[in-house]
Amino acid sequence: MSPTVKTSEPSGSGRRRYDTSNRRAAAEQTRERVLAAAHERFLADGYAATTVAAVARAAGVAADTVYASVGRKPALFRELVERALSGTARAVPGRERDYAVALRAAPDARAKLAVYAGAVAALQGRLAPLFLVLREAAAAEPELAALWSGIAERRARNMRELADDLLVTGELRSDLSRDEIADVIWTMNSAEYYAQLVVERGWSPERFADWLLDAWSRLLLARPPR
């Protein structure tokens, strides 16, 4: 009789998978602590005064851990901006964001503008504080200047796509070009505009969203609401 041959996974393989999963989870938790600490320090102290060492202290980790988990100071800031733009823990292209999908599905121009006005109010609540820090730092930091100009161009490009979505409805003023429509929306969806009305003048985000919808409807629609 032939001897029975038993096959099995190498001893400890299940444990190794478990350990790898735990290490990934721990690394992600560390990364989240680092980014939360960076967000706090940038807003409290500004970009120039915030050091990687200060972020590390606030996160309860070594400075080398900050570099390993996210990167240098410009990388920390860039990651925070991308998260604020997407509203998630990862960067999401503009047309793939939830509000952009909802906007394209909206039945008419005013409904599209309503979706976008609400999205701008929510997005700028996250982004405007960071943008105010970025605006000041960009003059002295070439990497942040590139980030500033890159995001401005992305916004302008996204607004041209939004103008296309609006023009398809046939409900916009005939005397406005695609670029003029995009430019009008671009100027009013900025962090500066949000900060002036919500942060400095005390408007609620809801009032800001309502204002954007009313203003855009009056400025852009062929038959604005009465």
From TrEMBL:
<dbReference type="InterPro" id="IPR009057">
    <property type="entry name" value="Homeodomain-like_sf"/>
</dbReference>
<dbReference type="InterPro" id="IPR036271">
    <property type="entry name" value="Tet_transcr_reg_TetR-rel_C_sf"/>
</dbReference>
<dbReference type="Pfam" id="PF00440">
    <property type="entry name" value="TetR_N"/>
</dbReference>
<keyword id="KW-0805">Transcription regulation</keyword>
<keyword id="KW-0804">Transcription</keyword>
<protein>
    <submittedName>
        <fullName>AcrR family transcriptional regulator</fullName>
    </submittedName>
</protein>
<feature type="compositionally biased region" description="Polar residues">
    <location>
        <begin position="1"/>
        <end position="11"/>
    </location>
</feature>
<dbReference type="GO" id="GO:0003700">
    <property type="term" value="F:DNA-binding transcription factor activity"/>
</dbReference>
<feature type="DNA-binding region" description="H-T-H motif">
    <location>
        <begin position="51"/>
        <end position="70"/>
    </location>
</feature>
<keyword id="KW-0238">DNA-binding</keyword>
<dbReference type="InterPro" id="IPR001647">
    <property type="entry name" value="HTH_TetR"/>
</dbReference>
<dbReference type="GO" id="GO:0000976">
    <property type="term" value="F:transcription cis-regulatory region binding"/>
</dbReference>
<feature type="domain" description="HTH tetR-type">
    <location>
        <begin position="28"/>
        <end position="88"/>
    </location>
</feature>
<feature type="region of interest" description="Disordered">
    <location>
        <begin position="1"/>
        <end position="30"/>
    </location>
</feature>
<dbReference type="InterPro" id="IPR050109">
    <property type="entry name" value="HTH-type_TetR-like_transc_reg"/>
</dbReference>
<feature type="compositionally biased region" description="Basic and acidic residues">
    <location>
        <begin position="16"/>
        <end position="30"/>
    </location>
</feature>
